[in-house]
Amino acid sequence: MPWLQLRYTTDKQSADLISDEMMECGAFSVTFLDAQDTPIYEPKPGDFLLWEQTIAIGLYDAEADMDAIVAHLQQFPFGQKGSYKIEQLEDKDWIREWMDSFKPIQFGDRLWVCPSWCEIPDPAAVNIILDPGLAFGTGTHPTTSLCLQWLETHIQPQDTLVDFGCGSGILAVAALKLGAQKAIGIDIDPQAIEASTANAERNQVLNKLELYLPDAQPELQADVVVANILAGPLRELAQVISNYVKPGGKLALSGILDSQAEEICQIYSQWFDLEPVAQQEDWCRVSGTKKQLN
Predict the structure, then answer these.
(1) What residues does each domain of the chain span?
(2) Architecture in CATH for domain 137-290
(3) pLDDT per position as a tens digit, 11-39
């Protein structure tokens, strides 16, 4: 069916209010875009952040009375700010369009992440079946990519891995499919636990994965620990994360901007012999080996 799109460019406070009124006026969906390419790097868990200049996009049936909808929005003070534009969208299969934008991605020599609707490029490789969605990490972002590349060369048979801030579970699942004996995923968000469970089940490794919220996390030391979160939590939880790595064990940290890498290295160098920092676009990975006890 054909659609009409109402694009409202305004400030972040007004964008949220406009979104609510768009839904009241029959929008099928409302999405937000950054109007000025201003990155948001470190939201706190559970925060919903918008950019200083935000575009709220309401999607409507082609028969919708857009003049009446705009008039409704402009009766409010927040609707009188900024500017708007009405666009006609061509009739197409939007679900298929979205699916076609995701393709299998290779990491290293033998690891692939494949959407479920795509043909697996190399059946003999290590293939992770993972669909894009609400779950925090599909391999497309540089921070996840850096971790997957590292795991592909560092996981050994019989390893136990801790995925600290597991999100979708992609790193834990990858480690298990690469040969790890056991993985433990920890995350503050119950939705992440659900997503990790579903992805582990889809990849037939759920029997080797344990998942915990922080208040229930076990005391243990693992052969390998990965933490793809953000620089702030990596600073604040440095001692906690480091304690999960056994002497001689391996650590990989990601979610770090290039401007933050030096500080993270300084913090973790007290416990680890660090490797050269790896970088992809503006993001870095810090990795190393836990120092042996004296």
Answers:
(1) 3-91, 137-290
(2) 3-Layer(aba) Sandwich (3.40)
(3) 888 998 999 999 999 998 888 888 765 54
Core vs surface per residue 68-107: b (16+ CB within 10 A) or e: ebeeebeeeebbebbebeeeeeeeeeeeeeeeeebebbbb
Q: Is 228 annotated as a binding residue?
A: yes
The response to whether 144 counts as a known ligand-binding position is yes
- Sorted by sequence, the CB contacts under 8 Å of residue 286 that are 6+ apart come out as 252, 253, 254, 256, 261, 264, 265, 268, 274, 277
pLDDT reading at 92 higher than 80: no
Report d(CA 41, CA 39) in Å as an integer. Answer: 6
Is 165 annotated as contributing to ligand binding?
yes
DSSP structural state of residue 227:
E
Q: What is the DSSP letter of 51?
A: -
CATH no. of 3-91? 3.30.70.120
Please give the model's pTM, rounded to 2 decimal places.
Answer: 0.68
Q: Is 187 annotated as a binding residue?
A: yes
